[in-house]
Backbone:
């Protein structure tokens, strides 16, 4: 008997996650001289050296169960963001918390609104719970359609979840537009803002959702991660700031009791304190993002505005085929697969050498 008959329809309808190829897979398949991994928005500088030091007993960190609440890390996060410790919930990466939130909130038939194209898990986890997806597609200039998002909020969906800056596009909602959007939210709509790339989104034209939402009586969650700017993707640790201790308590009931391991908690605490390493990371990404975008535009490619450590561009052809050509040259990028955006590629901003490798490879591929 086919296993499909045992699986819920919601699960069958979800496509596999496009996680991309590993370094070893590319080496074994293509045998390139060098590899530039620019498909997953990782930090080319890596983690803070402080995050890799263990002054205590590493054996005990491995042997014993971790603090289920991650109290020391939660206190540090709360102090940095000016919230109460019992408003902080930790996750095995912020994507773990997306699943937790959907399991806690979304009922079959509930409307879940998101920006599109989207981080696929924003849609997938809502669909798993039987949610009905409403997509607010970006405008022709690849920016956020704020007016349609506001109209959607007025319809009082069960949940609105999107990334700011957007993933994969890089576009963002500015402070004035975000404030207008918040004013239209109903108290029974949960707002989830995924700020995985907030560290890269400097400037007065980008708002901190935490700061804008603190003063409201709305229900909200802001998600952040240590996987991107903090360089801890392999340890899988992220966190959420909730509008209330009550909401946080319900999420704690849904998540697995020990969902963040002890080594990840230790490393995240050290990474959070090393602001100089974070500053170097952001400085590199912002300078290189401008340079790479200008080079792509000089090739005649349409590039979305971005406040992330990545760029989203229209290559004018099947992105999967172009990405395959780049793989043969040792460059890993992410061809987008959501409907309507199959000609788009998301490329991470890496080191100077990695970015040069990418630019040389894509120039040659486009000429070919």
Residues:
């Amino acid at each position: 008997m086919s296993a499909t008959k045992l699986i819920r329809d919601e699960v069958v309808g979800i496509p596999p996650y496009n996680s991309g190829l590993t370094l070893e897979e590319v080496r074994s398949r293509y045998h390139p001289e060098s590899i530039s991994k620019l498909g997953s928005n990782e930090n080319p500088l890596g983690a803070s050296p402080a995050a890799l030091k263990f002054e205590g007993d590493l054996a005990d960190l491995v042997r014993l169960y971790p603090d289920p609440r991650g109290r020391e890390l939660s206190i540090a996060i709360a102090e940095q963001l000016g919230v109460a410790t019992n408003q902080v919930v930790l996750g095995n990466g912020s994507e773990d918390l997306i699943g937790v939130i959907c399991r806690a909130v979304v009922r079959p038939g509930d409307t879940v609104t998101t920006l599109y194209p989207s981080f696929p898990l924003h849609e997938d986890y809502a669909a798993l719970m039987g949610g009905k997806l409403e997509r607010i597609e970006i405008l022709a200039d690849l920016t956020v359609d704020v007016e349609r998002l506001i109209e959607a909020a007025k319809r009082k969906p069960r949940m609105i979840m999107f990334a700011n800056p957007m993933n994969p596009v890089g576009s963002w909602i500015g402070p004035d537009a975000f404030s207008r959007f918040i004013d239209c939210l109903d108290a029974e709509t949960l707002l989830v803002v995924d700020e995985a790339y907030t560290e890269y989104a400097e400037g007065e034209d980008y708002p901190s959702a935490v700061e804008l939402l603190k003063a409201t009586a709305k229900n909200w969650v802001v998600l952040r991660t240590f996987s991107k700017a903090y360089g801890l993707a392999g340890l899988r640790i992220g966190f959420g700031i909730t509008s209330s201790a009550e909401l946080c308590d319900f999420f704690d009931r849904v998540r697995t009791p020990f969902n963040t391991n002890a080594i990840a908690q230790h490393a995240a605490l050290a990474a959070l304190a090393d602001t100089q390493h974070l500053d170097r990371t952001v400085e590199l990404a912002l300078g290189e993002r401008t340079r790479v975008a200008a080079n792509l535009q000089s090739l005649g490619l349409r590039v979305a505005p971005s406040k992330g450590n990545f760029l989203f561009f229209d290559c004018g052809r099947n992105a999967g085929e172009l990405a395959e050509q780049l793989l043969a040259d040792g460059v890993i990028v992410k061809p987008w697969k959501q409907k309507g955006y199959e000609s788009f590629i998301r490329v991470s901003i890496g080191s100077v050498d990695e970015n040069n490798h990418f630019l040389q490879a894509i120039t040659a591929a486009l000429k070919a």
About this structure: The longest strand covers residues 219-225. The domain at 3-45+276-367 is CATH 3.90.1150.10 (Aspartate Aminotransferase, domain 1).
